[in-house]
Amino acid sequence: MKKVLFVCSQNRLRSPTAELVFSSRSDLEVASAGTNNDADNPVTSELVSWADVIVVMEKAHRAKVQKRFRAVLNGKKLICLDIPDEFEFMDPMLVKLLQTRLARYLPSC
């Protein structure tokens, strides 16, 4: 089973949407977190260590994860989806973007 960590800024809209969308997959274990200190669930070294794949929504998130968690990244796959912070939780357009942009990285079983 592949462990996937979804990351955005506050862990309120984009990454929780991704977590919910992909939580029904039997081949994936998913979690979400935010890069900001006041995020609902901040990214920790434990979460980064747990994940096989880390999916960030923006380049700024990738940079923060790489800088803060360099010691535990250990060559893990880090994917940037380039999805801006302009969607509400479970917005149908956001769901479609997540499914489309992750299709090649997380193909259905």
Computed Rg:
13 Å
Task: Kindly report the average pLDDT value.
Answer: 96
Gap between N and C termini: 11 Å
Name the strands of the widest sheet in spatial order.
2-1-3-4
Task: List how many beta strands DSSP finds.
Answer: 4
Task: Give the structural class.
Answer: alpha/beta
Overall geometry comes to globular
- Spans of at least 5 consecutive residues with low confidence: none
What does this molecule look like?
The structure is a single chain. The protein is α/β, with parallel strands linked by helices. It contains 5 helices and 4 strands, in the order E-H-E-H-E-H-H-E-H. The chain has a 4-stranded parallel β-sheet with strand order 2-1-3-4. The model has no long low-confidence stretch (mean pLDDT about 95).
Topology record:
Layout: E1 2-8, H1 14-22, E2 28-34, H2 45-50, E3 53-56, H3 59-68, H4 70-73, E4 77-80, H5 92-102
Parallel strand pairs: 1-2, 1-3, 3-4
List the main descriptive attributes of the protein structure presented here:
alpha/beta; globular
Briefly, what is this?
By secondary structure, the protein is α/β, with parallel strands linked by helices. The chain is 37% helix and 20% strand.
